[in-house]
Each structure stands twice: as structure tokens, then as C-alpha cells.
Amino acid sequence: MNSETLQSLEQQFNIANKNPEEIVNELEKALNDQQKETINQLVALDKEVDDIINQINKLDMKYVEFEGLIEAHTEHIKAISRGTQNMESYLKVLEIRIKNEKQLSEYIK
Known about the structure:
Oligomer: single chain
Shape: rod-shaped
Helix content: over 70%
Structural class: mainly alpha
Distance between the termini: 126 Å
Mean pLDDT: 90
Radius of gyration: 42 Å
Low-confidence stretches: none
Order of helices and strands: HH
Number of helices: 2
Number of domains: 1
Strand content: under 5%
Largest sheet: none
């Protein structure tokens, strides 16, 4: 270990003038603290992932709901279109009847 690394460790872990067992204990404590922090970060990340999954599921449910609404509106529009076509056909029939009545009326005169 070079002197710079040793000095850095001495400052970081306060191991200057300690025996090897105390140094090991300090390093183990630092490692345990780091592991606890890592575990806490992973737990927090896991919660964030769960939250994202829940949001995706809610969006999926909304999509299915909107898909159903779109399908219902599409069927309604098709029904209106059929009704419009029927009315147009009926209008043509009426126009033909009126035309025939006019012709018949003129013929009778």
C-alpha cells in the first residue's frame, strides 16, 4: 500500500495510531455501514419500481376503459350512419312519389 492510500485511509477511518485489530474493526464497521446504506437504497429503488408498475397498470386500465368507450361510440356512429342512409333512401322514395303524383296530376288535367 502506498503512503498516499495509507494517509487517505487514516483520515477517512481515523485509524492512525491504532493496532491492527482496531483497524480491522473500523474497516468492518465502515463496510457494514456502507452495506446498510446500499440495502436501504435498493429497498427505496424497489419501492420506486413498484410505484412505476402500479402507474403502468393504472394506465393500462384507463387504456382498456377508453378502448371500450371508443368501441361503443364507433357502434353508435355506425348506427347513426345506417339511420341516415335509411332516411336518405326514404327521402328518395318520397321525391319519386311526389314526382309521380305531379306527373299523374298533370296527366289528369
